[in-house]
Amino acid sequence: MKNYILIILIVAYITIMFNEQILIRSKKILGDTSFTDKNIYLGQTIDLQNNQISIDYFRGIFLAFQSVNRKGGIKGYKINIVLLNDKYNVQTALNNAKVLVDYYNVLALFGTFGTEINRNIVEEVVLTKDVPLIGPNSNDAVFRENFVKNIIFTMGSIRDEINLIFNHMISKKIKNIGIIYQDTLIGNTAMNTLIQYVLSKKNFPINIKSISGYPKNMEFTYTIFEKLYGIQDPYLTNYNDPNTQKKIKELEAIILFAVDKQIPVILGTLKKINPNVYIYYNTYGGTDQDNYKFIENQESNIYQTNLIEDISKYPLLNEIFNNEKIFFNQTSFEITKGNKTELSKVYEKIDQSTSMMYLGFYTGLLIIEVLKSFDDLKDISRNDFIDRFYKIEKFNIYGLEIGPFVLNKNNVGIDYVSLNKIVDNKLVVIKEKDYHISLASKRKLVEQEDLITKQENLITKQENLITKQENLITKQEK
Fold it and tell me: What sign has the CA pseudo-torsion 433, 438, 444, 445?
């Protein structure tokens, strides 16, 4: 196999200021020859220790960049990732983002994780330093309320997931539910979005009977279920007790807003308490098969919503992904500096493809398509880069359509959501909704919105004129 220059992966640990660079590179790379002027640098800050879904996203985008780098790059330019470990700490992530922009001078940030982290990075880096942010991952609907040119979304919103969950519950005639959520900004944001959704519906047929929150990075505790069912230990409870049975059966379904770390135990325990309960959880629970390891009956009613397209539906895209995964697994990596244990997850062999890998992969290919559209990459600026998303408007990534991106109107590439049932350790799609609309339709909607706005402004002016005339008449009468 030829010696290919792969992506250069730099990892910096930061407290208040970064103190050490850690270089992970392929053994196929000879020296540091890849650090030349023909390189494009993009930056990401994620948790490399506790958050598998962020690592999966990174590895997906790594595979995308690998696909062009090992073939000589884009017009001779290699794409490099500067990766910083934030340990899911807000201040560390913010410092990381500033270092990526000010010290490493990255062209753009990508794949930031967490509601609070994204809020801070958007406010203090993206907006103040005019930096592109591609594919942020967050439940926060605030980012979507107003158009922000520098943010490019590559997935839908949690409101789409909540809508699909409740529609399914209504079809199953479910009346009473409970909610478990992580008591952090990401969990509270999900809860607030759910409550707002419920309040926006007249005569909503579903009752929220109990809510149970748990703190971030919690070691597993049964207090979650005590709040829901009034039982202290699910494995020592007398389920023959009539009062216990009544309380358990009252909750026909549970909505779960949790990170991937707690999903397996929570799912398993809920099914221990009530094998017949419906359980729904969302994209950020991850699609790792370990999520189902404590569930005895794989035919039970457990559902997950997913905002990420399954690339196996697109044969050519899927083939490229699998080829890059094979190449990655055949490549030997070494860490020249830093904590090998902490960094091992980044470059260990990929056994299972997850939805977050798919998201990272087609987000990376989207970035590649934008870079390919430039005649000369030598003097590309951040503004040039972000503007190109809106100039191209719509992308076809080996059959997967992304966009259109319309300046001042739409910065969301894919509005897709599916409801999946867990069967035999696999997610089986039972319903999907693609909100993606054509460029022509988008333009028509934009024109209609503009026309409605003009009509509303005209009505307001007429009302103001009528009010002035009435005031004038009143004065004359006096």
Answer: positive
